[in-house]
Amino acid sequence: MNDESLTRVTIDGDLFDLTGDDPEFLKNVAEYVNEKTAEVRRMRIGTATSPSQMKQLIILNIAEDYIKQAAKTKELQNELAKMQKELEAFLDA
Q: I need a labelling partner for 50 at 20 to 30 A (CA). Which of 31, 76, 80, 86 fits?
């Protein structure tokens, strides 16, 4: 059984019908993209940027956030693994 449903979202003024099993998550993703779009537009005020360049800047901005978060997640996973080993050593003593 497929639990995916259709969710309509607006991204940068355009309507998109997205499918997924969590409509609220899809709405949050669309909101995040809208926030990043607005952020890049604010940074580019007064500069000539083509729509294609603007899209690329938005993609780069989102990718940067993702990579930073992935590195932070990895760091926390390593810290947790270290703490687990320390706890196991303490309990074995």
A: 31
d(CA 5, CA 14): 19
Band (2; pLDDT cuts 50, 70, 90) = low
Structure tokens at 17: 């019908």
Give the DSSP H or E segment for 5.
Answer: strand 5-11
What is the pLDDT at residue 1? Answer: 47
Cα distance between residue 4 and residue 14, in whole Å: 22
Helices (H), the chain: 23-43, 51-92
Length of the chain: 93
Cβ count near 91 (within 10 Å): 7
Write out pLDDT tens, residues 17-65. 999 999 999 999 999 999 999 999 898 777 878 889 999 999 999 999 9
User: Which tokens sit at 10?
Assistant: 């607006």
Q: Residue 8's beta-bridge partner residues?
A: 17
